[in-house]
Amino acid sequence: MNHQAHSSSMAAPLQAVELPIRRAKSEWRVLRFLKRHPQIVAGSLILLVVTLVAIFAPLLGTVDPRAISVTKRLRPPSAEFWFGTDALGRDLYSRVVYGARISVGVSVSCAFLSCVGGSIVGMVSASGRWADSVVMRVMDGFMSIPSMLLAIALMAATRGSVGTVIAAITVVEIPRVARVIRSVMLALREMPFVEAAVAAGSTTPKIFVRHLLPAVVSPLTVQATFVGSAAIIIEASLSFIGAGTPPTIPSWGNIMADGKALWQVKPHLVFIPAVFLGVTILGVNLLGDGLRDALDPRMAERS
Amino acid sequence: MVYYVFRRLLMLPPVTLIVAFIVFGLLYITPGDPAAMIAGDQATPEEVERIRVSMGLDQPFYIRFAFWVWQLMNGDLGTSIFANQPVVQMIGQRIGPTFSLLTMSLAISVAIAVPVGVAAAWQRGHAIDRIITALTVLAFSLPVFVVGYLLAFSFSTSLHWLPAQGYVPLAEGFVPYISHLILPSLTLGVSYAAILARTTRASMLDVLTQDYVRTAVAKGAGPRVILYKHALRNASVPIVTVISIGIATLMGGSVITESVFSIPGLGRLTLDAILHRDYPVIQGVVLLFSASYVAINLITDLAYTIVDPRIRY
Amino acid sequence: MTVVLEVQRLNVSFVATSGSVRAVRGVSFSVARSETLAIVGESGSGKSVTALSLMRLHDAERTKISGSVKFKGAELLEVSEAEMRSVRGNEIGMIFQEPMSSLNPLMQIGNQVAEAILLHQSVSRSEAKQRALRLLIQVGIADPERRMREYPHQLSGGMRQRVMIAMALACDPEILIADEPTTALDVTVQAQILDLMRELKARTGASIVIITHDLGVVAELADRVVIMYAGVKMEEGTTAEIFSRPAHPYTVGLLGAIPSLDRNRSEGPLTEIPGQVPSPSHARVGCSFAARCSLSSSICFETEPELEDVSPSHTAACHHKIRTPVA
Questions:
Q1: Is C183 exposed, middle or buried (0-12, 13-18, 19+ CB in 10 A)?
Q2: B252 touches A at CB < 8 Å
Q3: Taking Cα atoms as reference points, which of B174, B29, B196, B18 lies closest to residue B106?
Q4: Binning pLDDT at 50, 70 and 90, where does residue B104 land?
């Protein structure tokens, strides 16, 4: 034992001390990781709360958000109506709580669909020079149209529904995801390990799944958060100008649109959903920022 | 160099064509009769037919598209279904306020964001940097209309410093023109400025680690010389890129902003068109914005060659 | 012999999230007027860190420097940042290893050289440009008028280094610090740059502190040599003494590793020093070189050797100094 210590100090730098229990070490690692990235924690917490609100909306002391009551219009916040009522006598609290469903639902759907769609497009684009120039030209075309305007045009050309909103936002966001996936794919194609796999006789789909897909996961996750954030903003904006979620379904943008006419005298109609919107989007952005910092070693060192 | 400009100009038509195709083709993505779609559920068969003829929807797709492109090249954006006016004319009437709004937002945002980003980069890790970073995340998380109401409520409704509605053309006085544009421009620019400040900070941080900055320090240069004379110039390519690409955000946001502040511009035109399902107007506005955006990006591409003498393609 | 720069017990540590790293440990040396001092060592020896510390070019947030750096009577480690700026580029000039990345790629050469003048002397822009032109001629750049308007990427590596030298000498400094100035250059260009440095030194009387791992450069240019290893000064002496009567086993190893056309095969393979430089983040006991030294004994692992005189101008830190009889 003694001899061991002596020779190790002679021949090499001090060895790291081995912790006796492996499990404790990995738990510590996770905690340390979270401590170094408070944004991920904060963002996830916010999103968790909002998602729970969305899922358990009926159980949170709400009434039917569409129930109109002509006699109880424009009431201020009270014991009966926690956030007051809107111009049609509807309970604002219930509308706002149910509105979370739209924001969460649209955000998650669009993030998922545009990641899938964008990955397919990106991979197709990276698969051959001819495919690349065609696909990229078309993507360039899409990206030349300001996203909000493209969304508006799409909504104007179709019948308005939540599904249409999701589809419109997905179309708007796919080009960006596709571009990222494409550049990852192109970079990977050049890498020696791909050549090695080909030389070893691996088939194309196998190369795909085992080598290329894992490299795509982290940029895709970051892009998913960007899309999620943009989706909430676009849906709310569309609903606000009357081109988004149909007015029968409560969405935070809708609610603000309803309150638009009277906002100077009854500002709470506009500001309460605005706060919910802001906090939720902030949550997604914090999570996205945190993930990006965590997954990009260069950025992490910088901050 | 001239060759490069020429080559880039050559790329303009294909992209614009694709844009036109997309905008034009949107009408046809849903199954069913586009005319009925536009006419709405309450329309009578005569109204549907009228729309179909006025938009030429009775002809095959490719003929329609070719004709439409031909019209475009002659400066004709079609006729509004609802107002029965040439779209170009309607746009011409409303473009002034929107242009003022966009230009002012751009100017204010760049003027604020770049120095803020430089300051954050120089003071990396310190209080100023942390505050700026936190503020940018917040600013970036608020949709345009939320910011709009916040600003309008604070500065107009509560403090009565600035008007919250309407637009005054420049011809009727400089001060009213500006005072009506301040809140909308700030609203529109906040989110854009946040991204710009972040990009500036990141790009500056990149540059500040470079060897030539160390050389400048070794020559005895002080912070201002280093930051603005050496670093910023070298950091500007990504910054200019983001300025250019972000203009799309400004364009999209202008529609919303005009709604919040009741500005009679193209945004309002678009919103009315949405209400009345006036598709030619929407097409026209979207096409105009897109073409402008493509042109702006092209100019930026060319501007790179001035900023960085190494870029000669 | 007047001393222009006196460094005493210089310690430089870098603060990282995982702890601090001591890159330079208690190094002392001095530079006399018109003298060329070479600081020699392999990668990781702390020689570049030492050079950057002289003008406080390290990131103040992450670096802890202690000790003393006296320049013309002033303690450089304690003067204000503003005062330091008036010294940098003015009384002490510095050139770096990579001339391509050390020049601003977006600024014309003429402006960069002129800047070196304008930062410290109140002359007009045109006057500064005139002087810049003369400097370019002095450092041997052909067709200087054209080069003034060009950008760094349009010049060759050797020319860029000449421009760096011109910038560093623009205000007639007392000391020129050169951090591996020839490492990134072709061999033929290296010789030209060394000739230029020698010539300029003769003309201006400036002192030179040259950091290098190349003993050939040392032989060409240096009056005295400091040998560093793992952040510690191991030996110091005149060039003649170091090359002909090295006292420290490490120096002997370095000299033995120089390939030469005169060697014949019977002399055996080039000396290799087995092992690796110890990491700067770990604590040390005894001599830093002991683990790799063929002469080491138990005292070497227990007590760090002090610098002791081998001759009036020659010191070494070793318990087993090699004494070569003077021929």
A1: middle
A2: yes
A3: B196
A4: very high
- Contact criterion met (CB below 8 Å) for A118 and A177: yes
Is C88 in CB contact (< 8 Å) with chain B? yes
Q: What pLDDT does residue C37 have?
A: 95
User: Model confidence over C195-252: pLDDT tens digits?
Assistant: 999 898 888 889 999 999 888 889 989 999 999 998 999 999 999 988 988 888 888 8
Amino acid at C140: G
User: In whole angstroms, what is the distance from residue A46 CA to residue A87 CA?
Assistant: 30
Query: What are the chain C neighbours of A10 within 8 Å (beta carbons)?
Result: 290-291, 301
CATH of segment(s) C3-101+173-317: 3.40.50.300
Of C87, C96, C119, the CB nearest to B215: C96
Nearest CB among A158, A237, A286 relative to B143 is that of A237
Q: Which of B212, B307, B309 sits opposite C102 (nearest CB)?
A: B212
Helix (H) or strand (E) holding B251: helix B232-260
What subunits make at least 3 CB pairs under 8 angstroms with B? A, C
Q: C317 near C308, Cβ under 8 Å?
A: yes
Chain position carrying tokens 């400004």: B250
Are A85 and A73 in contact by the 8 Å Cβ rule? The answer is yes
Q: Which residues pair with C10 in a beta bridge?
A: C27
The one-letter amino acid code at C264 reads N
DSSP letter (8 states) at residue A14: P
Asked if C86 has any chain A CB less than 8 Å from its own CB, the reply is no
The sign of the dihedral angle between the CA atoms of A12, A17, A20, A23 is: negative
Closest CB to A137 among B14, B29, B275 = B14
Residues 6+ apart with CB under 8 A from B301: B8
Task: Report pTM.
Answer: 0.83
Cβ contact B14–A156 (<8 Å): no
Report pLDDT digits (tens) over A174-194: 999 999 888 888 887 777 776
The conformation of residue C12, written as its DSSP 8-state character, comes to E
Task: Report the residue count for chain A.
Answer: 303
Confidence label for B173 from pLDDT (cuts 50, 70 and 90) = confident
Which chain A residues are Cβ-neighbours of C285 within 8 angstroms?
A: 9
What pLDDT was estimated at residue A2?
41
* Right CATH for A65-70+84-300 from 1.10.3720.10, 2.60.40.10, 3.30.70.20, 1.10.1740.10: 1.10.3720.10
- Tokens 């420290």, residue located: C248
Name the residue with tokens 């949107």: B26
Q: How many whole angstroms separate alpha carbon B210 and alpha carbon C298?
A: 46
Q: Does C98 touch chain B (CB under 8 A)?
A: yes
Q: Is C282 on the interface with A (CB under 8 A)?
A: yes
Residue of A288 and B8 predicted with greater confidence = A288
C80-93: average pLDDT? 92
In angstroms, the CA A80 to CA A66 distance is 16
Residue among B86, B20, B286 nearest A155 (CA): B286
Mark yes or no for CB contact C283/A11 under 8 Å.
Answer: no
Residue of C282, C288, C296, C299 for testing the chain A interface, max A β-carbons within 10 Å: C282
Surface of C (299-318) touching A: CB under 8 A: 301
Annotated domain spans of chain A? 65-70+84-300
What DSSP state is assigned to residue C291?
A: G
In this structure, are residues B187 and B257 in contact, taking their beta carbons and an 8 Å threshold? yes
Q: How far is A157 from chain B (nearest CA, A)?
A: 5
**Alpha-carbon gap, residue A236 to A240, rounded angstroms:** 6
Q: Which residues pair with C27 in a beta bridge?
A: C10
Local structure of C151: helix, strand or coil: coil
Closest approach of B225 to chain C, Cα-based (Å): 10
Measured between CB atoms, which of B212, B217, B308 is closest to C88? Answer: B217
